[in-house]
Amino acid sequence: MEPTAGLGHSGGVAVTPATEQAVAEAHRREWAFVLAATVRVTRDLDAAEDAVQDAYVSALTAWARDGVPERPGAWLTTAARRTALNALTRGRTLQTKLPLLLEPDAPAADEDGDVIPDDRLRLVFTCCHPALAREAQVALTLRLVCGVTTAEIAHAFLVSEPAMAARVTRAKKKIAAAGIPYVVPTDLAPRLDAVLAVVHLLATTGHTAPSGERLARADLAERALDLARMLQLLLPGEREVAGLLALLLLLRARAATRDDVLADQDRSLWDQALIAEADTLIVAALRAGPPGRFTLQAAIAGLHAAAPSYAETDWPQLLVLYDVLLGVWPSPVVALNRAVVLSEVRGAEAGLAAVEAIDGLDGYRYLWATKADLLRRLARHEEAGAAYREALCLTDNAAERAFLEARAHA
Amino acid sequence: MPQYAILIFEATPAAELPPEILAAHGEVDRKMVELGGKLLAGVALQEADTATSIRGDLLTDGPFIETKEGLAGITVIEARDLDHALALAKLVPIVRGGVEVRPLLGFEVLS
To answer: Which residues of B touch A131 (CB under 8 A)?
Structure first.
């Protein structure tokens, strides 16, 4: 089957819902692959995006006419590359825009080869280059790797569409002008940290909205899970990738009960298939070597998921995991979570002492909520009420407000 | 190969730089070449309080932008890409301060 991209003839072909669904599915599954392979031809992110966009548009009519191809990704890539090459031969001399992307180890022209190289990792590592600010990395990853529109990204991060468009444009311009290379880095480990941080940020933003009426922004969380699955497929030997994927699977498995605090969650609503999938990943990652931050976080989430009830949680084992986690990732938020576990092992008094020893979290609502809960357990009701009110001042999430208000007035 | 300026910001006055830092500066050129980079030019600046700034008709005694770590020098290099340029920039010895790597829009030696 031959692509007819760029010709744009829609005359006489009725686009059916089934075709639309096939194209939408290919958009979600194949966007990164198609764009990454097209960037190799254009060496210009904007030109590649335009060509890929065109390919999806022409797929609508072509697939309605000829049927959905066996390998939609290959069809779309061929179409996008052809459009890009046509545009290049027509317009390259007229283009006085940005320098071309640097691709030091580019093989001799593979444009018409049968095997399309999988360049998704290049795309990911370019979007998450440490010379770009984290917010730029996040925006670029969503736009270029996930194919999310600028309007949707702006909506998810509560900024105006022009502001998000400017952020994406500035980042693309920096990649070209500063010569950020379109390569998979040779020293992978430090660069992978940034990639994993971006995916994790998407997942956590997706699961706990900083404001608004709903606790979950399902689409961002869904994208994060897709990205983690893709990374696991492309970097099967990286333990922290497996750890992050497991962590996101567990977040997803428990998503139905996100609105309740852990002790009150209806565990029968948790997705056992996802929990089992995560468990396999965690066990393999732990066996393969000293665990990193994400593997440990996944192991912790996994222990919670394995407990038949809150009371039957293996708190001593959790405390061990938290101690190791604090070693590889010293962070006041980890220290706070460890304090909660400590209170379950050694009592509220010990937990409260640990919370009070934490520095630099006074603006963090969960610090006050935790403190309030521990004070309540110690029957220090007046201080507990004050702490609940402090936590209330710091949250604008409707579901959390309702919970804290109920507690503050209890 | 793309060209970059390495802007060197240093709080320690040149006269007070310890000998090992001065020696390291002398080595930078060779080390950059060893790493596959190319050194195109280098300038070392007198201290910021020797600067005179002009904005419109107004003369000001001092640097255009007052910073704790003043601009102390500029090295112009050629590198394969930003990753390479950053690796080369890390070779510049600093006592208190840091460096900024900026891609060049143009570079010309006029005489």
So the answer is: 82, 86
DSSP annotation of A145 reads I
The predicted model scores a pTM of 0.85
Nearest-Cα distance to chain B for A63, in Å, is 41
Q: Which residues of chain A have pLDDT under 70?
A: 1-12, 91-98, 104-114, 208-217, 410
User: Measured between alpha carbons, how far is A377 from A372 in angstroms, rounded to an integer?
Assistant: 9
Q: What is the CATH number of domain B3-103?
A: 3.30.70.1060
CA dihedral for B66, B71, B76, B79, sign (positive or negative):
negative
pLDDT of residue A263: 87
- Going residue by residue through chain B (111 aa), what tens digit of pLDDT does each one get? 899 999 999 999 888 889 998 888 888 989 999 999 999 999 999 988 899 999 999 999 999 988 889 999 999 999 999 999 999 999 999 999 999 999 999 998 887
**Count, residues in chain A:** 410
Q: Compute φ and ψ for A211, nearest 5 degrees.
A: -155, 180
Neighbouring CB atoms inside 10 A of B109's CB total 7
Look over chain A and give the mean of its residue pLDDT values, rounded to a whole number: 88
Inter-chain contact B82–A185, Cβ cutoff 8 Å? no
A185 vs B103: CB contact, 8 Å cut-off?
Answer: no
CA distance A196 to chain B (A): 20
- Strands B97-103, B52-55: pairing kind: unpaired
Q: Tell me what pLDDT residue A117 has.
A: 79
Are the Cβ atoms of A104 and B80 closer than 8 angstroms?
yes
As for the ipTM of the complex, it is: 0.88
| Range list of H helices, B1-111 | 19-34, 82-89
Q: In this structure, which CATH number among 3.90.1150.10, 3.40.50.1220, 1.25.40.10, 1.10.1740.10 belongs to the domain A331-410? A: 1.25.40.10
Find which of A100, A102, A126, A174 to mutate to test the B interface (most B CBs within 10 Å of its CB).
A102
Smallest CA–CA distance, residue B83 to chain A, in Å, is 7
pLDDT above 70 covers a percentage of chain A that reads 90
Class of domain A17-94: mainly alpha
Pick the residue from chain B with its C-alpha nearest to A191: B83
**Helix (H), strand (E) at residue B38:** strand B38-44
- In A, minimum Cα distance to B103 occurs at A178
